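Input:
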Amino acid sequence: MEKYDVAILGAGMSGIAAGIRLAHFGKRVCIFERHYAPGGLNSFYAKDGRKFDVGLHAMTNFVKPGVKGAPLNRILKQLRIRREDLGLHEQIGSRVAFPGRDLRFTNDVGVLESEIAREFPREIDGFQKLVHAVKSFDDTEFNYPYQSAREIARSCIGDPLLEDMLFCPLMYYGSATEDDMDFGQFAVMFKSIFLEGFARPLDGIRNIIKILLQRYKSAGGIRRMKTGVSQIRVSNEKVDRLILDDGEEVEADIVLSSAGLPETLSLCSPSMGGKAESNVGQLSFTETISIFDKSPDRFGWGEDTIIFFNSRDRFAYRASEDPVDLTSGVICIPNNFEYGDLGLPEGIVRVTCLANYDTWKSYSETEYTKNKEHWRPLIWDAARRFMPDTDLSYDSDCIAHDMFTPKTVERYTWKRRGAIYGAPQKAKDGSTPVANLFVCGTDQGFLGIVGSMMSGIAMANTHALR
Amino acid sequence: MSKDECKQVVLDIIAEIAPDEELSDVKPEVALREQLDLDSMDFLDIVMELRKKHGIEVPESEYGQLVSLDSCAEYLTPKFNALV
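Output:
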C-alpha cells in the first residue's frame, strides 16, 4: 500500500497551494483529483478550439508589489512564486449598477470614495467608518465569533440603497449565506474587492494553475488525476486509509480535503455525513458566456470590467425560486483589463445569475438543452439593461456561446447542489471530528483565488508543518 | 561558525523567502519584523528552512529567539557549532 505523509483531496487552488508548501519542506505528498483537469472551482476548458475559463471572473486581492501584509504578496512569498510569472493585468474599472444609480470602483479606493461622495453625500463619513471597521478586523485569526455584517454596516451607513450596493459585489463573489454575511467574511471580501482590486492574466486562470502545478512538481509533489477518493476509512477517530475510486487503498498520516465540509464528512466511513446534511450549501449559479467577433470597445462596451447589477428595490441574494433569477447578476468582460499592446482575439461577455439547483437537476436531457436555449437570451436581456446603448444584435453578432448551470458545477466539482461557495457554516480552523482530517478551500472560509491559496497555505502550515 | 557567518545564513534564508526585501542595511540589533515585511508565516519559513538546509531544530516555544539578527546569532551559532 502506498503511504504518504499527507494526502490532499482535490487539485484546486487550495489543494495545490497546500501541496507546494508541504512538498517544499520535504513531505511526501500526493494530490488526488477525480477530474481530468486541475483547478477545481476555478478551472478552464476548450470547446470548438476556443479557450474558456470557469470560476471567478477576475483575481481579487490585487495590490502592487511591496504592499506590506497584503494577501497577494503573502501568498507569493509563501509559495515562492514570482509575481511577474502571474502576468497580471489590472482592471479598467467596475461598477455596481442599481436602477438609476451607478457606483464605479477601480483598484484605487479613492474612486469609490468620490463616487459615494457624489451619489450619497450624507453617507461618506459612514462609509469611512465602515472602512475603518473592516481594516480593524484581524483576519489572520481563525476562530472569530459570528457577527452580522448587515448589523455592523447599518451602524455606519443609514441609506439602505448604499448598504445594498456595497453588499451586492461581496455577496456575489463569495457568500454562502443568504442576504447577510459573517462580518469576518464580509471584511475579507470588502478588502479584496474594494480596498485591493481586480486583475487577470491575459491567458486567464490557466496561467495561474500552470504556474502552481510547475511549482508543485519542482518541489517534488505527486499528483494523481482522474483518481478520486471514494472513501475515507476512519477508525478510533483517525483516518486509517483512503479508498480510491478504482478500489486501491492508500495510507496517509494527515489528510487535507478541499472537497467541502459536508462532502468530506459524507466520504467518511463509518459515515459522518448525517449531521452535516443541514450544512450543504444552497446557493448556486448559472453563467452564460457569449463570444463576439469584435472587441467590446467596438460596440461601446469597452469601459467596464465587471458590473454587478440589480433591478429590485431591495437587493435579494437568495436561492432562486425560478430556474434563473433575472433580477440581479454579474457581467464580466475579460477584454476590459489593461493589457497594453496585447489583447484577446475575440470579444467575450460572461453573465452570471443565481439559479435553482433542483429545477436544473430535475430536467431530462432534452428539457435541459431546451431550457438552456430558453434562458440564455433572457439572461442576456436582463444584463443588457445595465450596459450602455449599443447597436449590437445578440442573435447575429454572437458567434459562439456556452452556458453552465448548477448541474454542470456539481458534475465537474462534486460540490453538492453546485454550491460554489460551499457550506454556510465554515470550519474556520479546518478541523473536523476526525483527528488527522482537515478541510481547506471554500469550506475553510477564505474565498476567491488568492483566498483559496491562502487557505491551503494556512491549513498546511497549521496542521501539517508544525 | 562565527556569529557574523550565522547572521549571513539567516539573511540568505530571508532573501530566498522574501526576494523583494532590501537586506543590505538590516540593523542587527533591531527586530526583523520592524524592518522587513515578515509575518508569523514567514518566521515559520525561517525555522523550516533552518531544518531543511542545515538540520537545525527550533522548537516552537523558542521562536522568540529569532526576533533580531543579533538574537538569531546568539541562539543559533552554538547550535551550528554543535553540529560538527
